[in-house]
Amino acid sequence: MITEETVRTLAARLDTAQRTVTDTLSLADTHTLAVDDAYAVQAALLALREGRGERITGVKLGFTSKAKMEQMGVSEIIVGRLTDAMCVPDGGAIELDRFIHPKVEPEVAYRLGRDVDPADPDTDLVSCVDAVAPALEIIDSRYRDFRFTYEDVVADNTSAAAYVIGAWVSVQDVSDRAVRLSGAGREVAGSTEAILGGPVNALRALLDLARRRHIPLRAGQVVLAGAATAAIPLESGETVCEVDGIGRVGVRGV
Ligand code: OOG
């Protein structure tokens, strides 16, 4: 374990990188972090932000696609936090100079209709969801060139930077839906099956992670289930994600 002081120092380093829009080097270059240490840094980072008035609005999952897991050489998903400061309205403008090297991913969002007690063995997270929506997640690793270890990216709040939620629709099965993401002259297509073989599996995996990492899940919070395709750069102009039968969501880079 690293010391509490090191946890605070590393959290402050990542916080400064984000606030000054300046990349930083992999923590692994100078520190040996265990996964538990990395989650402790993430918690300290979020505590700094909450201390400045940010409010937690939900959680996001990462590495839920096989391609991304293989790329990282890992077999476990990661969880990060969303805050109100990261939320951009559907169709709204997003200032690119807030970010170091932003990328965007198409996702499915779930909304929790009630508080969840992850420690309760009878909890069924799927039954706690009251709505689903198409979503965009903007990731912006604070590490130079997106070069990071598994522990680095956990500490860095899983690269989370901003998110956009489309219109909520009443809960329905979102497995095996075609997903299209277009922006910056590019178009990528995939399926919600890329998210752990169906986004509902992401919810199950989240419950397990929330239990082990003591992450509270509250009514009204958003769960971003993970990327359905590879990320594309976020650039000026429109970026749109469409999930078959669910809807579309967009944002305008300025
Ligand atoms: C880490 C975050 C990945 C996902 O959906 O897999 C992620 C990164 O690639 O920077 O959010």
UniProtKB/TrEMBL annotation:
Reading the lineage from the top rank, the first entry is Bacteria
By its UniProt entry, which InterPro entries does this protein fall under?
Fumarylacetoacetase_C_sf, Hydratase-Decarb/MhpD_sf
PANTHER family xrefs: 2-KETO-4-PENTENOATE HYDRATASE, ACID HYDRATASE
The scientific name of the source species is: Streptomyces drozdowiczii
What is this protein's name? 4-oxalocrotonate decarboxylase
